[in-house]
Fold:
Amino acid sequence: MSLLVYMIAYLTVIVFISAVLYRFISYLRNPMHIRWELYPVPHEGKRASYGGSYMEEVDWWKKPRKKSRINELKVMAEEIMLLKGVLDNNRPLWYLTYPFHLGLYLLGAFIALLVVGAIAQIAGVSIGPLTAFTKLIGVAGFILGLIGAVGLFWRRFADSSIRNYSSFEHFFNLSLFIITIGVGILTWLFVDPNFNMAGTFVANLISFNLAPIKSQLFLVQILLASLLIAYIPLTHMSHFFMKYFLYHDIRWGDEPNVNNPATQAKIAAVLNYPVTWAAPHIAGHGKHTWAEVATFNPAAEPEKPKKE
Structure:
């Protein structure tokens, strides 16, 4: 059984990395999106404070653009670390989703610390302070993650305004988190109070030392954690890394199409897609491509046949 657990753990890493790369590549291969025109755009710097843009300048297309990366990082940090969008627009939900996300952040840090500690252990370096810090982060992550997952599950079940928009997948995902984190807490309480067993397991993975695992509860924890880690990037929960594209490429993507052959090529490709909309104001014109639709003027007088 121990050998199977090690194999599943290795497979988990492969699936996770492969799924993340697949998501990235799939997005990059998508057609060019329609610009949202959502303001403010953080990299506008001072103009972002009132929702302005570079287009308000005279002859803006002749001037070099200035972008504030610091302002972008500030907005990103607020959204990632505080979930500011939820905080500002849905405070009651924030009280549940923030502990859940913060718990996941801490558990991610916990895994990273286990890896660092395992490398130090293999190298024969003393890791006393790191072990104590790893335990603190791990326990906090387990507790906050469980509180948030249970709260979100109950909110989706009890609140009809959210339940109507909740699918089976939402409840399944939260249940998987609750079970996995719950087993992790039981393992910490009764089997591995200082996470020494977890650190040794990670060290064994890195060094390919497939030593037997004696605790059945710890085996169950590893299996559940492996399943969850491999499962996350395969679902809508992949938003934790795909948000980069949502913000930088869609919400903040405001590159002008001025002497830009790459953008022009993407637009040309999209305009040549066939029209499949059934709406009368589109399909009724009998046009075959979006280029024809875009250049068609329905209010124009029909051309009269030329007399010979």
The first helix runs from residue 2 to 28. The radius of gyration is 26 Å. The chain is about 65% helix and 0% strand.
